[in-house]
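Reviewer 2 asked us to include a model.

Predict the structure of this chain.
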Amino acid sequence: MPVRYPRPLRPGDRIGVTSPSSGVAKDLRARLEAGIRTVEARGYQVVVGDCMDGTGHVSAPAKDRAAELMSMLTDPTVRAVIPPWGGETAIDLLPLLDWDRIQAAEPTWVVGFSDLSTIITPLTLRTGLATIHGNNLMDTPYRAPEGLVSWLDIVAAPPGHQFTQTPPNRYRATGWDEYRTQPDVSEFTLDTPGRWTRLDADGDVEVEGRLIGGCIETLHNLAGTPYLDVSKLGDLIVYVEAAEDQAFTICRNLHGMRLAGFFDSANAVLVGRTRAPDAGSLTQHEAVLDALGSLNVPIIADVECGHVPPYLPIVNGAHGRVVHTSTHSELTQTLT
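Predicted model (structure tokens):
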């Protein structure tokens, strides 16, 4: 299946903001506005949808959220769509989206992670549309550390563009910034050293494949359905990340995804750094090995593609090349 890339964004283009999952509470709207200002500073116009209510776990009824997302994805004047953040039940949108209309429309960038994996990963797999697993709008004001890029850099890049990201080798081990009192915070607190970790074996890694993946807690519910059929992408580099579930649950979920064929074409597996708890006799790293060790491919953990700051954006559908040694790690992506 050919991967389709939207044309690069130019100043004056419109970016849609909608909440396919959770909206934004009133006392967090100042942070939302900070995110919007960051996007506008790049010269873009921001269009905020109606599905933004933050009083419950979803921003609006499913039919309204689906209709607003469809409207933005099929409006040729909207060049990218980004949510404020994830949530819990974006899965209810999948049967309500018109996948044929999305595939026929001019390609539009869709950005997000966490519960948005439930939407962006199927978008790539079902329509060939490249999507960005990257920082949501509420994270966008943070300046990317040296070696990493922002989703705003990617959406402005032309098809064929190649970029390499290297980990800063530091992360935030505990806590979060309080957006209610610091809505304009723009510097990550990276207080703990940490590098990528090879789990399956020792030795250097150099591997290539199409990139696909997302949040384990949301994607495992799609395993074995048409929404998570990876068979048309060819050789893969699969990335996964645990948001909060303890190790036994993550282990079971990864076993299920493997049994459903999600890792069948994987040349390597990248695993996001997590703060999710261990479970008695099983750590998060051991959970991954228990479920995926039989794949006999490199498994590299503690990658910046999850819920632990900072964030390394990954383009679903892009050609990826991973290099990992005892002294250096990098992910190169080519929009081709």
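The longest strand covers residues 205-215. The CA atoms of residues 37 and 141 lie 8 Å apart. We have added this to the supplementary material.
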